[in-house]
Structure formats: C-alpha cells, structure tokens
C-alpha cells in the first residue's frame, strides 16, 4: 500500500525528467521538491525538515555527484535514499549499496517499478526506525537493570538450565572474591568447595522446578544466609534460576538470643504496638497485649484456638496450607496480607510477617501482625477518587490535557481521541509538539507559555494542530497550573 502525504526530494540534473517524475509521484499522492544538483539538494535537506525520502540521480553533471551528495546527507540526517540511475554495472551497484541499503532503480524501468521501489524503501525505513527504538529500549532496560542490581547489598544472580552463572551483581563478585568475568559461565562447583556447591545446587534444583519462590536459610563459611530462589524463563522453553541472598547472621543471632531469653522477649513484645504471636503444633502458645487487642480475644481464649480460627473464612484454606508447610520447615520466612475476623465479628485487614524459630526447645512460628485496615480504606478511596476524576474530565466537551513539567502528556479526556483521531495510548508519553501542525506554530513561544503556566501564570494561545488523518485546524488553548495525584502539572 503506497503511503501518501509524504514529501519526496527529486535530485535530477535534467529538468524535464525531474518534472515528469514529480508529476508521476504527485498523481499518486506524494508531495515533491526538485533539486537540479548536489549542492541544491544539500541546501533543501538542511533547511526543510519535511523531506521523507530522496530520489537521487547518480550523475548530476558539474559539481558533486549523487553518491557523494548522499554520503554528506547521511552524516546528519536519517532519510531513506533511493538511487535513480542508468548504470547497471556490478561495481556501480556495489558502490550504491555501500552508501545506502534502500536500493536503486534503473531509469526507464517503468512507473510500477519506481513506485514499488519507493514504497519498499519507506517500509524498510519504518522497520529500521522501529528496530532502533527497540534496541534503545532494550539497552536502556539492561542498563537500568544493571544499575538496580548493583545498588542493592543483597547478592543477586541468574543461572542457566545447567546452573552456570549468566548474570551477577557486584555484591556477589565481591562475596566470591573474584572478577565477574571469572564467575560468568562457571558453576558453583568451579568456584567453591564441593560441600558448599552441593548444598547450593540442591536449593537451585528445587527453585528451577517450582512455580513459587523458595526461601531457605543456608550456611556458608560460618555465616547464615537467607536465600530467595525462583524459576526464570530464559526463552526457547528453557528455564533458569534467579536468586537474592542476604546475610542474616547477625539477625539470626539476635533472634536466637531474644527467644532464649523469655524475659527480654516479653519485655520487647509487650512494648510494641504490633501483635507478636507464636503458634506451635497448630495452637497459639504466646501473644502480646497487641495480639489480644487486634483479635478481640484474651490470651487465654487464644491459647485454646488453632492459629487459623481467627482468620476470615475466605482466607482460611490458604492460611492453613501455609501454616502447615511453615511448621514443617518447608518455608523459612513469609510475608503477606489477609483478613482476620475479630471476636465481635468485625473484619480487619492485617499484614503478617512470619518466620521459623525454636521456642522452648521445639520448632514454632513467630509472627508479627500490623493492622493495615486504614491503609486499605485509603487505597479504596484513592481508586474511587481516580474513578471520579476520570468521569469528571470525560464529561467535559472540550479537549483536556494533563502535562508534566518536562512537557510529557500524562493524561487526557475522551474528547481528545474524538478531536484528534489518535488513541490516548498513542499520545500519552509524548509532548504537545506531537500534535502540532508543521510550520504553523512558534513552538519556542508556546513552550515558554507552558513554563509560565507551571509558575502560576494563566496563559491563552492559539495552537494549530494536526489530526491523525493530516487535517490541520486551529484551537484556542487555556493553560492553567494544577495538581495530578500529587504531581505539579498544567
């Protein structure tokens, strides 16, 4: 399908041929400009930003020829160039191919060949632009990922299906006392004692075969580490294992001393506003005053209950399953949100953090519970607020835009889609320049007016806009400062 409303620069030293070519292209919906020499072509390209493709004759008479002109243009501009030539020799074809990959057309090949070559050049250029965008996004994503991994103190890695390291952070390299290049591509058996390597391999295998995060505590060189390992899809039906590892030696020692010292534990537990509770063999064996308050039951009443009896019925099967696994030591530490039902029948949202301990010489589970009901209510109000906001702006018949200080359009109402022909997804993330009619606005002045609005000054202006179908129309714009979910906007 031939694209239209695009501008093609015809670089041809023979005036009649140039005019004939221009008429053909214009009959098929293209706009054209003509340059009779290389110097004129350079001047047009450098001073007109609307050139979408160049049809370049190789022989341009006196002055610089077509290939030389193309080389100069491509140093500053990314414009597809199709060569128009009477040459078909192999050396000339290779010379043209070395400059641009958009092809060439032998003169007098016919209108269909010329139009098809131009259409294919546009398609190839579009594909190239999309590929460049994807590569930039991929590089940016990889860069951010690397920065993130290296900013955390936890050890982090990714291993392939053969348990070879394929990604590590600086903390892991420092932990192993090796350079990254000496670690990547190797397994634990290449980097540490067989005893430690076998221990890590066991938990790696559990993680790569599971559909959940596997949390374990592992000893290494006298220290205790909490490992969170999980399956990672690697493509081509292959799976790897990722992990975050944290040194919890000091934390573990503190917890052990705390639990062993009943008096100190009770002093700490009874002074905290959070519920601190312990269950053992399915029954509660300890609660602090905050636990009594959040559940509505006295300590004596709780000690006669199984740990899941205060849980809301909708969440009870999940809590029973997790609790039984935790008592057996299958999960070392967990944290999640759920609903409990108080003694008076009232429901409360809570956040629970739970870990394995030894209590009075026997395995048990220590949990801390925070009441997050107010937070949940606030979240629901925020959702309602956002829903109300959407309804309000969508009830306005005029186009409404929300713009950030950096010029990026954050949101808009439904009228914008109707007025401009673009979907919100196509506009959000761009600036107002995207909707501007080419050559019809003083964008520098408009940008300054936008900045004035951010500073508190109301502005009014006439903005020439372009719809998705190319229609150009004027709009009176009113700029006012405001706030958008806590952000300063116009």
Structure summarized in a few sentences:
It contains 18 helices and 21 strands.
Descriptive notes:
It is a single chain. This protein is of the alpha+beta class. The chain folds into 4 domains: 7-130, 3-Layer(aba) Sandwich (Rossmann fold); 152-247, PAS domain (Beta-Lactamase), CATH 3.30.450; 259-371, 2-Layer Sandwich (Beta-Lactamase); 388-489, Beta-Lactamase (2-Layer Sandwich). It has 18 helices and 21 strands. The strands form 6 sheets. A 5-stranded parallel beta sheet has the order 2-1-3-4-5, with helices on both faces. A 5-stranded antiparallel beta sheet has the order 7-6-10-9-8, with helices on both faces. Strands 12-11-15-14-13 form a 5-stranded antiparallel beta sheet. A hairpin with a 5-residue loop joins strand 16 (401-403) and strand 17. Helix 2 packs parallel to helix 3. The protein is elongated and about 100 Å long. The two termini are 40 Å apart.
Strand content: 25-35%
Mean pLDDT, nearest integer?
Answer: 82
Radius of gyration: 34 Å
Question: What structural category arises from helix and sheet content?
Answer: alpha+beta
Q: What is the H level of CATH, i.e. the homologous superfamily of the largest domain?
A: Response regulator
| Largest sheet strand order | 2-1-3-4-5
Query: Total number of β-strand segments?
Result: 21
Number of H- or I-type helical stretches: 18
The top level CATH class name of the largest domain: Alpha Beta
Cα shape:
elongated
Distance between the termini: 40 Å
CATH architecture of the largest domain: 3-Layer(aba) Sandwich
- Spans of at least 5 consecutive residues whose pLDDT stays below 50 are none
Helix-residue proportion: 40-55%
Summarize the main sheet. 5 strands, parallel
| CATH topology name of the largest domain | Rossmann fold
| Total count of domains | 4
């Amino acid at each position: 399908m031939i694209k239209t409303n695009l501008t093609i620069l015809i670089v041809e030293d023979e005036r009649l041929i140039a005019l004939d070519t221009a008429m053909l292209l214009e009959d098929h919906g293209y706009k054209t400009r003509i340059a009779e020499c290389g110097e004129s072509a350079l001047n047009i390209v450098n001073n007109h930003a609307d050139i979408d493709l160049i049809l370049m004759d190789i022989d341009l008479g006196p002055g610089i020829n077509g290939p030389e002109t193309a080389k100069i243009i491509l140093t500053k501009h990314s414009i597809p160039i199709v060569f128009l030539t009477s040459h078909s020799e192999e050396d000339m074809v290779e010379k043209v191919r070395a400059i641009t990959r958009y092809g060439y057309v032998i003169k007098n090949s016919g209108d269909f060949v010329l139009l098809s070559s131009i259409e294919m050049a546009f398609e190839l250029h579009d594909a190239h632009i999309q590929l460049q965008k994807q590569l930039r996004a991929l590089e940016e994503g990889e860069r951010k990922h690397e920065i993130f991994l290296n900013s955390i103190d936890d050890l982090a890695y990714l291993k392939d299906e053969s348990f070879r390291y394929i990604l590590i952070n600086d903390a892991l390299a420092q932990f192993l006392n090796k350079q990254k290049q000496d670690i990547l591509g190797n397994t634990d058996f290449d980097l540490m004692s067989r005893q430690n390597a076998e221990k890590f391999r066991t938990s790696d295998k559990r993680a790569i075969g599971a559909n959940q995060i596997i949390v374990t505590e592992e000893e290494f060189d006298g220290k205790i580490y909490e490992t969170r390992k999980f399956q990672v899809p690697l493509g081509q039906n292959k799976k790897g294992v990722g992990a975050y590892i944290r040194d919890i030696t000091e934390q573990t020692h503190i917890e052990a001393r705390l639990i062993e010292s009943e008096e100190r534990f009770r002093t700490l537990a009874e002074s905290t506003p959070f519920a601190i509770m312990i269950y053992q063999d399915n029954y509660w064996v300890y609660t602090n005053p905050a636990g009594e308050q959040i559940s509505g039951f006295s300590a004596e009443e709780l000690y006669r209950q199984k740990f899941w009896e205060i849980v809301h019925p909708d969440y009870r099967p999940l809590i029973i399953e997790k609790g039984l696994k935790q008592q057996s030591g299958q999960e070392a530490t967990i944290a999640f949100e759920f609903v409990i039902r108080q003694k008076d029948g009232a429901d409360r949202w809570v956040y629970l953090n739970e870990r394995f301990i030894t209590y009075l010489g026997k395995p048990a589970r220590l949990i801390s519970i925070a009441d997050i009901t107010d937070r949940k209510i606030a979240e629901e109000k925020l959702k309602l607020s956002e829903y109300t906001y959407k309804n309000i702006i969508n009830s306005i018949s005029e186009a409404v835009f929300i713009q950030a200080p950096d010029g990026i359009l954050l949101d808009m109402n439904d009228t914008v889609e109707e007025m401009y022909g673009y979907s919100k997804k196509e506009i959000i993330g761009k600036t107002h320049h995207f909707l501007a009619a080419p050559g019809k606005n003083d964008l520098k002045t408009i940008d300054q007016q936008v900045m004035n609005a951010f500073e508190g000054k109301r502005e009014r202006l006439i903005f020439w806009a372009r719809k998705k179908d190319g229609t150009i129309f004027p709009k009176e714009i009113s700029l006012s400062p405001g706030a958008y979910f806590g952000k300063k906007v116009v």
